[in-house]
Amino acid sequence: MNKIVPLSSIEPGDKLIIASLQMEPVMRRRLLDLGFVPGFAVEMIQKSPLGDPVAFRVSGTTIALRKEECDQIFGERVIVREHS
């Protein structure tokens, strides 16, 4: 059983299956429109040198979010490790 964690807790290359967005309605609507929909996967692509903002791939698009936005998006972590 996977634990629900904030989007801000994953690392580059990891994915998160969105469970909920817990923020004010205007921002929630904006993120839903961008593809941050419960049940969809989000992959962290990279963090900026200072850690904020962070780039994610969702619905085939790259989106940058600030840490405070990532702290309000929750889901189940999917760790993808390549074997060599």
Considering the chains and any ligands shown, give keywords for the structure.
84 residues, alpha+beta, 2 helices, six-stranded antiparallel sheet, 6 strands
Q: Mean of residue pLDDT?
A: 89
Termini separation comes to 27 Å
Which residues sit in consecutive blocks of at least 5 with pLDDT less than 50? none
- Main sheet overview: 6 strands, antiparallel
Any idea what the shape is? globular
- State the helical fraction: 10-25%
Radius of gyration: 12 Å
Number of E strands: 6
Write out the strand line-up for the largest beta sheet, numbering strands in chain order: 1-6-2-3-4-5
Structural class: alpha+beta
Q: So how many helices?
A: 2
**Into which percentage range does the β-strand content fall?**
35-45%
How would you spell out the order of helices and strands? EEHEEEHE
Protein model, in words:
By secondary structure, the chain is an alpha+beta fold. It contains 2 helices and 6 strands, in the order ββαβββαβ. Strands 1-6-2-3-4-5 form a 6-stranded antiparallel β-sheet. Strand 4 and strand 5 form a beta hairpin. It is globular, with a radius of gyration of 12 Å. 20% of the residues are buried. The mean pLDDT is 89.
